[in-house]
């Protein structure tokens, strides 16, 4: 039996193309420096997060020299913090992380220090620890291994190359309820850091160069994503806070404009009507002289009279007769309240369907039945819920309704009418307790699946060369 010949050593020049798959960096040029012990990566916006027992570091990488518009957000567990002396004699305390180095199909773990190398020509430096025993250095050559290309950053493969990294997520909520606790627990289970922020205690620095959100006397850190859980009573201020995060460039699960529009019941119905989404006949008027005409537009009694500011079934009245409807309308007008009048869908029999739409898909649906003697099916008012199989028309209606407001997370309430599904309301901060309990589905997990897919860096458009024509 002949002995197996030893593997041929890898030959590295003084500069090589490498990739860092754990960090989502598929191609970067690295300078080989045997005088340095630990490798170094050019990193911006370095900040720590997570529990003290297992701290993480979040940072960004610009892998292409001169292309600061290409940003790769990264996060990793901190394994050490070391004093490092650079080649020019400057000492710096740096975070150390572990990552995988990949070269021509061969991969091995290395340690990397994070530092700003903006004054260096190379975005990465490979030290002795990263060079395996069977690597030989040819100091007079470069790119002895197969060359990669920055073109990968301009293709759809860019998203596929992104790892499931730890995220820093803010939940805008003033309540310690089931939904908020589930969002925190599910996120931490996936290795993310989830922080609950009281929306009303946020304040903002509004300027063109450095817009910021502050909280408890400090500037809030950069978040990978914000999950708004904005109560109806603070919609205007909550939307302003979300707009500020949007200005910074943070991914917000639901946009400020969609939350504001869905909370304005009159505007919401107008938007859905424009999109030809089925809903109960609805009418609105300001003048008391138009009461009879207003009721005539909707239909015959019984009618629903609904305050524009109503939530969880409050401010919604069923008028069984024309006389009762006139009395309710007069009472609301006397209070100077804004309201809608809607047709009562009798065949729904006090039941509605809540469809939970996440990322453009219905991930769960439940049928809600009102308490005995109550036409309102809200669970907060004693109603009950059970899982239900919805029709294709109901599924399509729910998805279209959420899309009208550009909501990535929405509770769409439907009635089953003889003429097809009718949308009652689109809720931008739906509760998870009732629908997770009745369906047994991990709704919060579906929310994180969407967030994790959306915060990956997208392919970057190439810059046009000087002198080229075009737009």
Automatic annotation (TrEMBL):
Swiss-Prot/TrEMBL GO biological process terms: SOS response; translation
Domain of life according to the entry: Bacteria
Keywords assigned by UniProt, alphabetized: ATP-binding, Ligase, Magnesium, Manganese, Metal-binding, Nucleotide-binding, Protein biosynthesis
Cofactor(s) named in the record: Mn(2+); Mg(2+)
GO cellular component: cytoplasm
Keyword Chaperone found: no
Matches recorded under InterPro entries: Asp_endopeptidase, ATP-grasp, ATP-grasp_RimK-type, ATP_grasp_subdomain_1, Peptidase_aspartic_dom_sf, Rimk_N, Rp_bS6_RimK/Lys_biosynth_LsyX
The ATP-grasp domain, residue ranges: 269-452
Gene3D superfamilies xref list: 3.40.50.20, Acid Proteases, ATP-grasp fold, A domain, ATP-grasp fold, B domain
A molecular function GO annotation: metal ion binding
Entry-linked SUPFAM superfamilies: Acid proteases (SSF50630), Glutathione synthetase ATP-binding domain-like (SSF56059)
Coiled coil spans: none
Family indicated by similarity: In the C-terminal section; belongs to the RimK family.
Name of the featured protein: Probable alpha-L-glutamate ligase
């Amino acid at each position: 039996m002949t002995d197996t010949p030893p593997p041929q050593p890898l030959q590295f020049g003084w500069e090589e193309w490498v990739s860092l798959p754990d960090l989502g960096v598929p191609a970067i040029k690295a300078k080989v420096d045997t005088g340095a012990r630990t490798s170094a990566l050019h990193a911006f916006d370095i900040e720590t997060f997570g529990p003290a027992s297992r701290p993480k570091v979040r940072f960004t990488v610009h892998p292409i020299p001169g292309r600061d518009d290409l940003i790769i957000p990264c996060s990793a567990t901190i394994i050490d913090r070391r004093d490092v002396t650079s080649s020019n004699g400057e000492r710096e305390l740096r975070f150390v992380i572990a990552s995988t180095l990949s070269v021509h199909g061969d991969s091995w773990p290395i340690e990397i220090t994070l530092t700003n190398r903006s004054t260096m020509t190379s975005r990465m430096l490979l030290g002795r620890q990263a060079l395996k025993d069977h690597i030989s250095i040819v100091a007079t050559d470069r790119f002895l291994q197969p060359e990669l290309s920055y073109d990968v950053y301009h293709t759809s493969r860019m998203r596929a190359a992104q790892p499931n990294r730890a995220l820093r997520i803010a939940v805008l909520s003033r309540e310690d309820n089931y939904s908020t606790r589930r969002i925190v627990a599910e996120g931490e289970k996936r290795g993310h850091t989830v922080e609950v922020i009281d929306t009303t205690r946020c304040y903002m620095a509004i300027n063109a160069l450095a817009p910021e959100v502050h909280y408890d006397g400090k500037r809030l850190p950069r978040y990978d994503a914000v999950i708004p859980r904005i109560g109806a009573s603070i919609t205007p201020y909550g939307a302003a806070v979300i707009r500020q995060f949007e200005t910074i460039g943070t991914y917000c699960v639901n946009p400020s404009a969609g939350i504001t529009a869905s909370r304005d019941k009159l505007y919401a119905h107008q938007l859905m009507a424009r999109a030809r989404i089925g809903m109960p006949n609805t009418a609105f008027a300001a003048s008391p002289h138009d009461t009879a005409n207003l009721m005539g537009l909707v239909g015959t009694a019984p009618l629903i009279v609904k305050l524009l500011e109503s939530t969880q079934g409050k401010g919604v009245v069923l008028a069984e007769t024309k006389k009762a409807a006139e009395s309710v309308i007069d009472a609301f007008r006397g209070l100077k309240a804004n309201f809608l009048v809607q047709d009562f869908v009798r065949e729904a029999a006090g039941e509605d369907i809540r469809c939970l739409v996440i990322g453009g898909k219905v991930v769960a649906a439940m049928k809600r039945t009102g308490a005995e003697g109550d036409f309102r099916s809200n669970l907060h008012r004693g109603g009950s819920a059970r899982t239900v199989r919805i029709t294709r028309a109901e599924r399509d209606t729910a998805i279209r309704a959420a899309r009208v407001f550009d909501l990535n997370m929405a509770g769409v309430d439907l009635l089953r009418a003889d003429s097809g599904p009718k949308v009652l309301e689109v809720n931008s901060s739906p509760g998870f307790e009732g629908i997770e309990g009745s369906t047994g589905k991990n709704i919060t997990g579906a929310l994180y699946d969407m967030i994790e897919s959306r915060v990956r860096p997208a392919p970057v458009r190439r810059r046009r060369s000087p002198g080229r024509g075009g737009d």
